[in-house]
Amino acid sequence: MTNIINKRIKKLRSWMRENGLSAFIFPSSDPHNSEYVAEHWKSREWISGFSGSAGTAVVTLEHAALWTDSRYFIAAEKELKGTDFKLMKLRVEGTPSVAEWLGTMLSSSETAVVGLDGYVNSLDEVSVLEQELATRGNISVRTDVDPVDELWIDRPVIPDNMVHLHPLEYAGEPTSSKISRVRQCLVDNGADGLLVTALDEIAWVLNLRGSDVHCNPVFVSYLLFSPEKVTLYINNLKLSEDVKVYLSTEKIEVEEYDAIVEGLRTYRGESLLIDDRATNYLLATAAPYEKVIAGVSPIASMKAIKNKIEQEGFRAAMLRDGIAMVKFLAWLNPAVEAGNQTEISLDERLTALRAEQPKFKGISFDTIVGYEAHGAIVHYEATPESDIPVESHGLVLIDSGAQYLDGTTDITRTIALGDLTEEQCRVYTLVLKGHIQLDLCRFPAGACGSQIDALARAPMWREGYNYMHGTGHGVGSYLNVHEGPHQIRMEWRSAPLQAGMTVTNEPGLYLEGKFGVRIENTLLIVPAETTAFGDFLKFETLTLAPIDKKPIVLEMLSEEEREWLNSYHRRVYDKLSLYLDDEEKEWLRLATLPI
Questions:
Q1: Which CATH class is domain 2-151?
Q2: Are strands 139-142 and 368-371 parallel, antiparallel or unpaired?
Q3: How far is the C-alpha of 297 from the C-alpha of 505, rounded, in Å?
Q4: Res. 319 pLDDT band, cuts 50 70 90
Q5: pTM above the 0.90 mark?
Q6: Exposure pattern of 23-50 as b/e (b: 16+ CB <10 Å)?
Q7: Per-residue CA distances from 113 to 24, 67, 107, 282 (Å)
Q8: Under the phi-then-psi rule, with left for phi > 0, alpha for psi from -120 to 50, and beta for the rest, what region is 294?
Q9: Pairing relation of β-strands 402-404 and 360-363?
Q10: Which residue in 103, 165, 220, 315 is deepest, having the highest Cβ count within 10 Å?
Q11: Domain 164-303 falls in which CATH fold?
């Protein structure tokens, strides 16, 4: 693979010389600013070989570098080894920004030109880059070039999978109601139109789902709100007769996907709301400048608050997912002891058990099964090359989830497979304490995730430990497993936590070369009480699966923490035992005995 990457870089540099470019930037996104993208838009992975979901690759005529965050430091080091790319660790002191690095690399050039594809870079990103490069010499930016179209010979096509209806029995609110609410938000923001580019927002508003992106039930399209109509821009081949009739009934007009640029140029409303941080440069600049209002799409916040039907759907999906998890956990240790198990075989077994559950539609992200040292690689995914035997000692970290018609699941368990070290038990217990402390939290309505993040980290901080990823993210309703705008993390995120939102609770600790620990449940934010100081919120734990007790150092848990674990395990047993055979039920009884 190393030789292939270097050959691609060489061809790219020849193309750059022919087209008068000094550098080219490859982001991880697509024209819709998606976190996970269809194969057609995986240009950064194609040029660099780095397979993580987040990163930016930059190639000059003589140098190459790739920026990514702490989730991928270990994986990126391995995947970039032997290539021209140098790893740049985001948010680590001494790491230059892309603009700073380009300013240094291109300092000897009198007239440097940096290229990027304006369809996969947001207006905000391009504007900031232009400003920063202008201060570092005579460096200009071109947005109308895409070398990959020419150089990636077998580039996958834009997906054309069929779109399907998401029934009201799962969606809980008709499209007409959602459109009315969006229009009211536009009035409140002084706009009469809205460009929607985020695929999960489009799917949510229209009560439609697709399969264009691996693990994410979305479809490639745009949605344009005008004063008198709503238009879906999509490849018509993706629409069945049933979907066409549905869209017509909902008064949604349909145009071809590529017609969006013309639709923006001829927009007849007085004002059009465009999110400059999420909308790609070429679309954002296609609309008449005098009509554009910069702002955030209201749909993300609307979608994040689950209605009663969606909440019940989550509870039902978590119950079925919990049944599959218990069947897997009951199987795990005996299977490992019998031998011939690997990280991939564990992944396959868990997926097969989930697939037996009603309403299963696939996994919600690629399963992470990290045994011992691989567990310290935050977003590790076993491949035939990296797959290792799983043995009856140490820890295995399993982060997994599923898509069901009525909900999306995301759960991590770290399981003892045999003898553990004192360090493993201590680290495991610190992570569990952090998990429990966040779950116990009550907070005033309007607080944001950054204000409660420290609760999960405090037990670890006292011991000099920390983790660099976020503590929690929103979860879609048979949609993307990661959704915002709310998050629980150290970095400031101002989006308020509100009743009806789902959010994960997933602190972890990772000791490179040794092991990793993460414990994750999905939560629902619900009302707690109203006092003289206002409304307070709390968490309802949706995930149902036992937390391994074997690694716990009991003396490290407070009475409150012990009672939380015992109460949670009572609930897990009461909810799941009705659906298990006698052998599985007995395993669960032992796994949930009070400590």
A1: alpha beta
A2: unpaired
A3: 26
A4: very high
A5: yes
A6: bbbbbbbbbbbbbbbbebbbbbbbbbbb
A7: 9, 20, 12, 18
A8: beta
A9: antiparallel
A10: 220
A11: Creatine Amidinohydrolase; Chain A, domain 1 (3.40.350)
